[in-house]
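quick one, two chains, predict together pls
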Amino acid sequence: MIAPRLDDLDRKIVAALGLDARVSNRQIAADLGVTEGTIRTRLKRLQQEGLVQFTVVTDFRMAGSPNLVMMGIHADPGRVSALAEDLSAIEEIGCVIVLLGRYNLMAMGLFKSVEQVDDLIRARIKTLPGVRDVEVSTAIHSFKYDVRMARITRPKPLDD
Amino acid sequence: MQIRRGKRSGAPTLDEVDAGIIDILRQNGRATNQEIAERMGVTPSTVSARLKRLDESKAMRVVAVSDFAAHDYNILIAVGVKVHGRDSKAVAEDLAALPEVFSVSLMSGPYDLEMLVVLREFDEIRLFLIDHVAAIPGVSALNPGIAADIVKFEFNVAPL
């Protein structure tokens, strides 16, 4: 069992910033009864360790109400790592996971038209060496999605 | 052809100042209004007014995103769910109520629902799938895949 990477205070700070990361350090410090310097130090460490990141999430409507498309990719086992890199390099694909069980790779992206999905899968995924089959599934409605949690794969460089 | 119709009205329009502010926040969500104003060549009160408007229109949000590891979630599974004898939406709502469910969507594809689940330990997979999910009325088949590697995970568009 690995020791928790966030202590109680870290968790409270992250929770305070959750859906509105514009709250000032001063405000959080006052709410939690600690100094502004403590908040600043904690946030810097969390960002440097790639545990927390501040980012802009745009509403679906602003992006033209796209649909989430899930692609389950069956591939030659020896090509999975290389394919994971190839798929990650495709801008329209937001998520690539190496999967055990259902298929070898799962890729997801947001798309505004079926033509766009077809173009991607037919011309740019099925043509990649090692891809055997792609199972496509389109989201009709999202019941739950927590924007506050993710895998931070590339921590952003800190300004200061 | 559009995959989804409707819900297209009501998206607020952005001008260059809004777009510039959002761009800076994408790089550093915690930049102060003063810093944004200096980089944009506008007054801090303009930045403050624009941010207030963007916030009220729910066009975007600056969020604190924490890594799965920060919550000790070491396991991610992608589960396809088939539903029989009950409305899939009702099953989705039951699934959404489980804290381990990170996302759940109604799908058009081989499975009626797709969910991403975060867990701390391997033993929890059995507990979650067999004791909790399989007990939900209407769930007729489960196809889980275990994430071996999350290579890319960038979702900057979400329902707000």
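The first strand of chain B starts at residue 60 and ends at 67.
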